[in-house]
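Batch 3, record 17
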Amino acid sequence: MTAESLLLRAQQMPGYNPAALPIELARQLIVESITPVTEFDVVALSDALGRILAADIISPIDVPAHDNSAMDGYALHGADLQSDSPIVFTIVGTALAGDAQHHEVHAGQCLRIMTGAMMPVGCDTVVPQELVHRVEGGQITLLANSIQRGDNRRSRGEDLRQGVSALSRGRRLRPSDIGLLASLGMSEVHVLRKLRVAFFSTGDELRSLGEALTTGAVYDANRYTLLGMLARLGCEPIDLGLIKDEPESITAAFCEGGRCADMVITSGGVSVGEADHTKKVMANLGEVLFWTIAMRPGRPLAFGHIHKKEKRTPVFGLPGNPVAVMVTFYFLVRDALLRQMGECGETLPTLRAISAQAIAKKSGRTEYQRARLSIDQNGQVFVTVTGTQGSGILSSMSNANCMMVLEHGRGSVAAGELVDVVIFDGLV
Ligand code: AMP
Ligand code: MG
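Prediction for the assembled complex:
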């Protein structure tokens, strides 16, 4: 899709209003205009964690490759269990995990067997050793009905059958997937190449770390939150530094980003202030749309593509305020990045929790509140806002463990009402 058609497409969308754009429409427009990468790397399985699969994985073998025991105990014929009185079996040998040996077990007989050992032919049941009533003179005695036919046997291919799809293209590999690929004997895996994402900050008032903080200046926080957020998504961050509010320097930074990266992200200079040159520069270098998103925090946003010969690089101009940077990143840029990386993941789950307090809100915009989830002694999940919600107050983001999402059409929230919540951290 070309940037011109991005504008056309935008104008065709019902409800498109660049001066008050619902976040859902913005997200849709952005994601639709992004093309996923297709180039791939072949990496050792031990380096594949967090990478995105470039092709479906078809299982080359059955896992497990044999019927085997799920317990330490005795393998036997389930048909022998039909009795209302104690049953005696004669032990005919022992099978350890890894033994390739063949044991013949006939009616009335059993085989001492360890967890993971191959089931002898004909046996379909394992009685765990702790359920055996007596072991004496090479025989075991089971009480009637102490075990069901088929218990404690793991069947060949019950985890994965040869020829079935084990994992799909677009999956971000988690520890369980790495283990699963190992269980298929795969030492290498094809993964999509990492995205290179360039970013820089703009603002004459900003100072880099190590510089003295002169009157009126602030340290550049955004490059560090961006670095962290990009690294967490598995991108290769390219830090283009701190850029003065002058068109030539901003132009040079965008051109460098367009040359070396798959996406360029800037912060600051996209509102209507006098020193906000970023917008003009972006517009000169390609096709960029400027929106006021109906969201809080994070209203001004620029999105489009800069062009260099054949290469079109998506660019985001995020607001300058540190929390606005993070919220627009998480709720707009993140989806664009995941699409460009080729990830076909599940959308982030939204939970519902009870608001511990009343929250004033205007209908007609989506509001994101930094908040903490807690569970009371009855197991009810509450959510509490973490203090002042100004878009420059990064500490309330650090204190939060979730984002409360108050949807576009909603008005003020009363204490005790259910609200949507997105959790920051997960288990795996
Ligand atoms: P702007 O969008 O450029 O008007 O900036 C809005 C606010 O965010 C101003 O108070 C800026 O000083 C602040 N700001 C912009 N960029 C950064 C940054 N990289 N780190 C910390 N604060 C910033
Ligand atoms: Mg600025």
